[in-house]
User: Which sequence fits this backbone?
C-alpha cells in the first residue's frame, strides 16, 4: 500500500500525518511538497534519512487543489503500487484504527475506490446545503446512496486501486468527485467501509474565505461529475453562478507533462 500525501506549508503537521499512515499499515509513503515556504521539505528530508520507505517529490510552485494526488499516483504506479491511499498533509486526527480498517477492507474486498463517510446517511437539511445536495445526487445517479451516503473522495482519506487509475484520464484524478463518477460508469468496486466524523480528521483551521473557495471548488467538481454521469458536456455552472473556487489554479499543464514523460 502506497500513501500519497500532498503538502503545502505543513511543517507543523507533516510528521504526524506520516506517522499516522505508517501506523495504519502503509509500507511506502510519498510526500508531494509544492510551493512550500516553510520547513516542510526539510522535515520530510530528515525523516527520509531515518526511514527509506519515505519519498519526497518537490515542486517550487503551487500545484493547486488535488493536483498532487494525480502526480503522486503516477510515481506510485511506477514503483509498483497496487493500491494508493490519498491522505492530506494537514490531517492529525487520532484515527489509526479507522484508517487501518479502510486499507485492509480495500485490499481484502478488492475495492477500486474505498471512501470515508464523514457525514452519515441520516445527515439532515441537505436541501439547504448545495455541496451536500450535489454529493447526494452523484450517489443517487450511481444508485449507491444507501451504500455510500454522502461519502466522496473530495472529503477525507480514500483508497484507489491501480486498476482504476489506469482506466481514467490522469487529469481526472485532480477532481475527486469525477473519480467517483468515472468509477461508477466503469462498474468498478466502490464502497465506504468506514465512518469518520469530520472533527476526527484533525484538519487545520481554515479562514472563511478559503473555506468558501474550497466549497466552490468541490461544488464545481460535483457539477462536472453529474454532467458526465448524465452524458452532458462538462460544466461548473449552476443557476446563474459558475463554481470555480480554486479550479483555475490547478496545474493541469504539469499533469499533462508528467503523463507525456510516463508514456514515452
Assistant:
Amino acid at each position: 500500500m502506497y500513501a500519497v500525501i500532498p503538502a503545502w506549508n505543513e511543517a507543523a503537521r507533516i510528521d504526524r500525518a506520516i506517522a499516522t499512515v505508517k501506523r495504519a499499515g502503509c509500507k511506502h509513503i510519498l510526500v508531494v511538497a509544492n510551493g512550500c515556504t516553510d520547513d516542510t521539505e526539510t522535515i520530510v528530508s530528515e525523516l527520509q534519512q531515518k526511514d527509506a520507505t519515505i519519498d519526497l517529490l518537490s515542486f517550487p510552485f503551487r500545484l493547486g487543489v488535488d493536483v498532487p494526488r494525480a502526480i503522486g499516483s503516477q510515481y506510485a504506479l511506477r514503483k509498483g503500487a497496487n493500491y494508493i491511499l490519498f491522505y492530506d498533509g494537514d490531517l492529525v486526527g487520532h484515527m489509526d484504527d479507522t484508517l487501518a480498517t479502510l486499507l485492509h477492507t480495500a485490499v481484502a474486498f478488492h475495492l477500486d475506490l474505498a471512501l470515508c463517510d464523514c457525514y452519515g446517511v441520516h445527515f439532515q437539511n441537505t436541501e439547504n446545503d448545495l455541496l451536500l445536495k450535489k454529493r447526494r445526487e452523484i450517489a443517487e445517479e450511481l444508485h449507491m446512496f444507501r451504500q455510500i451516503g454522502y461519502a466522496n473522495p473530495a472529503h477525507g482519506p480514500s483508497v484507489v486501486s491501480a486498476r482504476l487509475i489506469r482506466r481514467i484520464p490522469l487529469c481526472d484524478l485532480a477532481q475527486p468527485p469525477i473519480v467517483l463518477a468515472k468509477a461508477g460508469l466503469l462498474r468498478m468496486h466502490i464502497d465506504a467501509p468506514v465512518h469518520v466524523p469530520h472533527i476526527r480528521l484533525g484538519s487545520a483551521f481554515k479562514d472563511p474565505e478559503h473555506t468558501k473557495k474550497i466549497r466552490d471548488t468541490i461544488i464545481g467538481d460535483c457539477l462536472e461529475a453529474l454532467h458526465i454521469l448524465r452524458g452532458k458536456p462538462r460544466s461548473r455552472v449552476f443557476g446563474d453562478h459558475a463554481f470555480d473556487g480554486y479550479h483555475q489554479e490547478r496545474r493541469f499543464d504539469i499533469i499533462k507533462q508528467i503523463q507525456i514523460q510516463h508514456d514515452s
User: Anything to note?
Assistant: The beta strands are 2-7, 28-34, 54-59, 83-86, 113-117, 158-161, 190-195, 237-238, 241-242. Residues 217 and 244 are 5 Å apart (CA to CA). The chain has one domain: 2-263.
